[in-house]
Amino acid sequence: MKVKCDFCGSLIDEGLASCPNCGGSMPTANRVAPEQPRTIEELKQWYTAHNLPPENVTRFFIGKDIKEPRAFGIYQNDHGDFVVYKNKANGERAIRYQGVDEGYAVNELYQRLRAEIANQKTASNTNVSRTSVNTGKKKKRWTIWDILLLPLLLPLVSPLFSSIFLIAIVGLFSLFDHSPQKGYYNYNGNDYYYQGSNWYSYDASSDSWDYLYDDDFLDSVITDDTYSDYATYDHEGSRFEDSSWYDSGSYSSSYDWDDDDDDWSSSSWDSDYSWDSSSSWDYGGSDWDSDW
């Protein structure tokens, strides 16, 4: 996208800090706040940290040129330009930005993503409110949950029976929990780290850790009953605990990660945009007819 320089009138790429023709400063250059994602990789991390549903659910594709209808996205093309786009319901593509300023491009999609999160939360809360309205009195029917929760009231009658029941319930749930333990794993010669129901892979060429989007193959083989087969104490590269992904506490909807340079703690800023996994995201309700 081109904008006009206020000083010489030249059309230049939007987002440049100064005009390459006259040197005048451009007011559009400083639209990204210090704590916001500035790169495509940082936007991917922000997306993951805020517990957003998979990209095929939200229809926001970061770092991908998707041709399908109903898609928002950002990617870098073969010429080095960063492209921010929206594919409408009819398949027509609207280009929001195309240029060399990655920070500006990322901010365009970041702001649109935040707006869509707010829209989805509003729609979800509205649906919950409507379904929770009871206009008449109905006779209560016992459900399976009523039967299971009834023994929790038994401490008033029989503390011993209640304790036995709770121990049995905990043991029953543990039989179905096949989640691996938090830590390092090695599978087929590759190093991985598991934390908070997510997998991260080690890239030896860059000595760095990356979020693993396609982790179904790991979930199917590395479970608690194969823990001793794949778990390792450490590995030869950089420690996962020193990466920006590491969370020393337990995984939660306010997932935080910190490093020495940036504070990406979603509990201290932007927490309104963390997604509740119990809510449903309906991209069919998004506005797919407008240019943006």
What does this structure look like?
- The protein has a domain at 2-125.
- A hairpin with a 2-residue loop joins strand 7 (183-187) and strand 8 (190-195).
- With 292 residues, the protein is of the alpha+beta class.
- The protein is globular, with a radius of gyration of 25 Å.
- The two termini are 14 Å apart.
- The protein has helices at residues 40-49, 55-58, 102-132, 144-149, 159-176, 216-219, 227-230; strands at residues 2-4, 11-13, 60-62, 71-76, 82-87, 93-99, 183-187, 190-195, 198-203, 208-211, 231-232.
- The strands form three sheets. It has a five-stranded antiparallel β-sheet with strand order 10-9-8-7-11. The protein has a four-stranded mixed β-sheet with strand order 3-4-5-6. The chain has a two-stranded antiparallel ribbon with strand order 1-2.
- The relative contact order is 0.13.
- Mean pLDDT is 75; it is low at 29-33, 131-140 and 249-269.
- Helices cover 26% and strands 17% of the residues.
Record the SSE blueprint.
Blueprint: E1 2-4, E2 11-13, H1 40-49, H2 55-58, E3 60-62, E4 71-76, E5 82-87, E6 93-99, H3 102-132, H4 144-149, H5 159-176, E7 183-187, E8 190-195, E9 198-203, E10 208-211, H6 216-219, H7 227-230, E11 231-232
Parallel strand pairs: 3-4
Antiparallel strand pairs: 1-2, 4-5, 5-6, 7-8, 7-11, 8-9, 9-10
